[in-house]
Amino acid sequence: MASISIVASVGVSVPRRATRVTRTWRTRFDVDGCRRASSPAKARGGRLALRAAGGGVDEDEKLKSFLRRKGVPIPPSQPGSIAERAAKGTPSAEASSRGDDDIAELRFFDLDTVRERWEVPWGGWRVFFGLSGWTASFVLTAGVVAPVLLALNGVDPRTFDPSQKTEYLLAIQAAETGITFGVLWLLLRGYRDDMDAAGDWFVIDPRRDAFGVEKGWLRWALYGYVAVFVSIAVVATLFNVGEFAMDAFNARNSRAGTPTEAVEATHRRIGEPARDAGEFAVNGPKTGGGGGATGDATDADAAVRDRVLAQNAARRSADGPGTIDAVLPLIGGGDDQGTRLLSLLAVTSVFAPALEEVVFRGFLMASLTRWLPTPGAVLFSSVVFAGAHLSARDFPQLVCLGMVLGFSYARTRNLLTPMTIHAMWNSGVLVVISVLMATGRDIPGL
Question: pLDDT: is 108 or 289 the higher one?
Answer without folding.
Answer: 108
